[in-house]
Design goal:
heterodimer; A: about 160 residues; alpha+beta; Ubiquitin-like (UB roll); DNA polymerase, domain 1; 2 domains; 5 helices; B: about 270 residues; Uridine Diphospho-n-acetylenolpyruvylglucosamine Reductase, domain 2; Uridine Diphospho-n-acetylenolpyruvylglucosamine Reductase, domain 3; Enolase-like, domain 1; 3 domains; five-stranded antiparallel beta sheet; four-stranded antiparallel beta sheet; 14 strands; about 35% helix; globular
């Protein structure tokens, strides 16, 4: 067991973890932040995407102890002062989900997309950028629309 | 997953020392092959020595016709580097085709090369460009580095520090990827060096991992046009055959991808 210190959604967190504990296990099982999902557990589906020091990563393919000293943001931490993040609001507005299982990962990936590529995203770019996030319900149409609108809303914020 | 002990060394030298003391230790960088393998209990290292945060292993520079990339540099950093995009655009493009965005944010060039997965992309660029792999002990030429499936010339405990790529006159990489894993079912890297030599490296297809397609290189040395590849016949006997594609199918893909790469070079 090792003691690690990290910042999760702006709060300092200290945790006792086994060295083999995955970051997603720490988030869900110890910190009870169950918005981050485990879908495939094989680094393919993207349901577990969180931001590590501002960068989107698959929390199922990283040890919690590797995040010692890092700043983590999960879906629970993107809303500010009770207001949905513009990307969350866009998913609601454009019905970018059905069952909702993939949605936290989609939103964390979408925010990272805007960070890297800016807010003017065309459809082809968004579809290509979503290759690591799998949705089994929607057929992606409304997810793409939501990301396009959410990206624009982030720019005007 | 089996129990393991994690170490975060402060230097390459400390990493090597930690590994030498471990009973059955492994280095971890991006971990995007090792961690899934550990989940399946196909690997159970007693110790993990994390190379991903070592500043000695990071960074990209371009000087005197050579691009040098630190081993712990991520795929995203290579794909988005202005220096790489300008000097060897095919290398930046290849890095941008690996996995998906979250994988590229974490996976590293050194990890990819040390692992030498037969479907990985970087081995094709390293072999196609005739790069040099610098370790904490020596320099290894690309032609001597890849020795078989998941096997390299690296000795036990040896650490890749950086990779230096000679800037070619022109180069291109064409990949036919598996729709599920985004690994290369077949990928072909074609490079025309400043001295005119043509190198063609194939990943995803070889039963022993990445290889140079000597017959295609010979065909292109006479005439650098995709038509020259038509007459080449690729022997499927040395190629991979699995649920994703037969050896014969991959043999055809080698030619098709090579032709596309030559056309892309123009």
């Amino acid at each position: 067991m090792s003691t690690i210190a990290l910042k999760v959604n702006g709060k300092d967190v200290s945790a006792e973890v086994e060295d083999r504990t995955l970051l997603v296990e720490l988030l869900r099982e110890e910190l009870k932040l169950t918005g981050t999902h485990i879908g495939c557990d094989t680094s393919q589906c993207g349901a577990c995407v969180v931001h590590v020091d501002g960068v989107a990563m698959k929390s199922c393919t990283m040890f919690a102890i590797q995040a010692d000293g890092a700043e983590i943001r999960t879906i629970e931490g993107v809303a500010q002062q009770g207001a949905l993040h513009p990307m969350q609001a866009a998913f609601a507005e454009h019905h970018g989900l059905q069952c909702g299982f993939c949605t936290p990962g989609m939103i964390m990936t979408a925010i990272d997309m805007v960070r890297r590529l800016g807010s003017d995203l065309d459809e082809a770019t968004i579809r290509h950028e979503l290759e690591g996030n799998i949705c089994r319900c929607t057929g992606y149409q409304n997810i793409v629309k939501a990301i396009q609108a959410g990206a624009r809303a982030m720019a005007s914020q | 997953m089996y129990q393991t002990r994690y170490h975060r060394p402060g230097s390459v030298a400390e990493a090597a020392e930690l590994l030498s003391k471990a009973e059955d230790g492994r280095y971890v960088a991006g971990g995007h092959t090792l961690i899934p393998t550990m989940k399946h209990r196909l690997a159970g290292p007693s110790d993990l020595v994390d190379l991903s945060r070592l500043s000695e292993l990071k960074g990209i520079s371009e000087k005197g016709g050579t691009v040098t990339i630190g081993a712990a540099t991520t795929h995203y950093e290579v794909a988005s580097s202005d220096a790489v995009r300008k000097a060897i655009p095919a290398l930046a493009a290849l890095a941008g085709m690996i996995g998906d965005p979250a994988v590229r944010n974490r996976g590293t060039i050194g990890g990819s090369l040390a692992n030498n997965d037969p479907g990985a992309d970087y081995p094709a660029a390293v072999l196609g460009l005739g790069a040099t792999i610098h370790t904490d002990k020596r320099k290894i030429e690309a032609d001597d580095f890849f020795t078989g499936l998941f096997t390299t010339a690296l000795e036990e405990g040896e650490i890749i520090v950086k990779v230096s790529f000679p800037v070619p006159k022109k180069a291109a990489y064409e990949k036919f990827h598996s729709a599920a894993s985004r690994y290369a079912l077949t990928g072909v890297f074609v490079a025309s060096a400043k001295d005119g030599a043509v190198r063609v490296a194939v990943t995803g297809a070889g039963a022993n991992g990445v290889f140079r397609a000597a017959d295609i290189e010979k065909a292109l040395s006479g005439k650098a046009s995709s038509d020259a590849i038509d007459a080449v016949s690729i022997d499927p006997s040395g190629l991979l055959s699995d649920i994703h594609g037969s050896a014969e199918y991959r043999a055809n893909l080698v030619k098709v991808m090579a032709k596309r790469a030559v056309d892309a070079i123009g």
